[in-house]
Amino acid sequence: MAALAVLAAAGCSSGAGAAPKITTTARAGVAPTPPEKGAYFGAWVPPGIGGGPKAPSPGRTSATPSGGSSAKPAVKDADRPGMAPVVGFERELGRQLDIVQNYAGWKAPFPGDLDSSVLDGNRYLLLTWGGADTREIVQGTHDELIRDRARAIKATGKPVFLRWSRDMDKKSAQAKVHSATDFIAAWKHLRAIFKQEKVDNVAWVWCPSARGFGSGNAGSFYPGDGEVDWICADAQPGGDYDYRDLSEAVKLFMEWARGRAKPIMIAEFGVPRSYGERRAEWLRAAAKTLQDPQIKAVVYFDSDEQAEDARDKRRAFSVTGDKRAVSALRELATTPYFNPRNLPVTSD
């Protein structure tokens, strides 16, 4: 798919070893490619921001997103379908997001309202697309659906990050994923159909759980360098820890990633409400960990939807209403390393 792009990894580091040169099969100027320096900053902001646990998880010109005065968090953006919570979050951060994440089930229509709103602006869309039975995919059962999705993404004419079947390494996914071999075959089948449809505006993001590199065998699900544009991990600290730095959560994943000449995305990171006054401390430490020369995109999970109930603060990650946490996340988001497009930063 498209031309090969190569970037020399550069930037600040939290003491990690030198990153490899970064390669991607994505076509520069058409699909999302890594910034030469620094990392994009994005977020998942669910509908009804701050609305408590179990919130539902849920285009177009050909220009690549770019900086400029129009990139300021704007009132007019809030009028676009699905964008009001995103713009509210951006106001707290004092800057526009580079990446807006959205979730879609396997059979969900695309683009949805939020997808279209993001694609009509100058933010990147990170589409996290649910999986299906891998063996059915390989057998061709879902070819029509896959082809429809490929054509719809191509029709947007905008760069799209596509994160398919995330956390495929978890036991909860085994009934559909079956095995690493089945997953890899299904991944290649999807990519082959997208290639047949000449979809050049997609960057393929492979994303197991960070924990899977310790307690499981997440690396065995890797389809290969020629099949992946970005390597990724979901890296929440975990509800079974009283306190755990992000550096510990991503350590084994980062060690594995050093062997791959690919840009890294941390697609779901967040600090639990259970950390209380230490949330700001956690975020400031995370900012140092994430300033790694191989990390090229970070996406905050600003949601409480994983919490089992209102008392479950270990799985609640929204910073809304926590002034210290908001301030610390703002510091992270407005650090030059996480603003490679030089988007305007506001003081209010």
UniProtKB/TrEMBL annotation:
Polar residues: bias regions: 59-69
Chain intervals for the UniProt region annotation (Disordered): 28-81
Annotated ranges, domain GH26: 1-329
Keyword Chloroplast: no
PANTHER family attached to this UniProt entry: GH26 DOMAIN-CONTAINING PROTEIN-RELATED, MANNAN ENDO-1,4-BETA-MANNOSIDASE E-RELATED
Protein name per UniProt: GH26 domain-containing protein
Similarity section: Belongs to the glycosyl hydrolase 26 family.
Organism, scientific name: Actinomadura graeca
Keywords associated with the record: Glycosidase, Hydrolase, Signal
Signal peptide feature range: 1-18
